[in-house]
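Support reply, case 0932

Customer input (verbatim):
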Amino acid sequence: MADRRILSLIASSTETVCALGLEADLVGRSHECDFPPSVERLPICSEPKFDIHGSSLEIDQRVKDALRDALSVYRVHADVLKALQPTHIITQDQCEVCAVSLKDVEAAVCDVLDSSPKIVSLAPNSLEDIYAGILEMATSLGVADRGQNLVRDMQSRLKIIGEQYSTISQKPSVVCVEWIDPFMPAGIWVPELVSMAGGNDLLGIPNKHTPVVPLEKLIEANPDKIVVRPCGWGLKKTRAEMEEALKQTAWQSLRAVQSGELYLTDGNHFFNRPGPRVVESAEILAEIFHPETADYGHKGIGWERY
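Our regenerated output:
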């Protein structure tokens, strides 16, 4: 496809574009796109409307305030968009907190562009949705065959993990934490990954965003293992936040905490990006659930024991 100029406004789609061999066609990115590291050379086309620093409770309140006042938590830089003149814009229509939304992009395009770029809007809630989004993206960009190959590779690798742990008799009970305060268990595709990696997810709702639930639900579940993977946070920030949470008696009473089965992960780079690295996310879970048999080399990079 001649003169392809791709603007990716989701970190996962930036990774997918690169996995499809089209990094040279990327002309811009969102403020969250940082992998592969080489994409950080690209102009940034978006920014959050709120201060992203602070505790999980503070950030949650800022997001709610932004959505109440403006119906969106991100803005698109119209001047950068106009200068880039993309032929394709990849965004999402799944979560207004996760990334720039479809309506933000459509508004910016209408305001500043004379051309009519192809807008690909993704809405993944399951692994099948992730595969479908990759295929849709690849087809739109004129490389449908590469998309099919990428999806087949992901499915093959995940199948190997699933087959390895499908018949084991001892599967640890697990709660994956999407957000610490207020407490949110992880839903959408994460329960699928937990099951694939040989765990029993107690609170996550497959293929749906799990709402805020009382911390008492976690106390009642009292899982064997807790995997903390806040949306948008790396290991350092997650550890700092958990240090505060663990000052509470409720957290201290949990079996997983008392037995040293509390794990921190890089939720930003892995679990919250519905792209090629969901495979690595499953591998991380397998390493945490079954350290005696799983070693993919992610310890210390994608996860660590608290």
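We compared this against your earlier run and they match. Two observations from our side: The chain has a mean pLDDT of 89. The two ends are 48 Å apart (CA to CA). Please reopen the case if you see a mismatch on your end.
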